[in-house]
Amino acid sequence: MVVIIHDLKLLCSIYHILLFLPRIVLPLMQSYSTAGDFTVAGKIKTALIENAIYYGSYLLIFGVCLIYVVAKADLQVDA
After folding, report:
1. CA 14 to chain centre
2. Which one-letter DSSP state was computed for residue 39?
3. pTM of this structure
């Protein structure tokens, strides 16, 4: 079954929701369910800290790569 969506705003909304859920909400929910704390606030705090470390490391690697590319002025991109 093929669903055709003619409304561009609806299509963009669906796209961004499907982009947001697996990258942000799902890892938080997974960390929440595996947290060993006994209170809801403790589980949320542990999940947020774990995900901050995870995404922070990716951001650090991206930043280092970006600085390298900017500093390396003689890079040629041929398409």
Report:
1. 17
2. S
3. 0.68
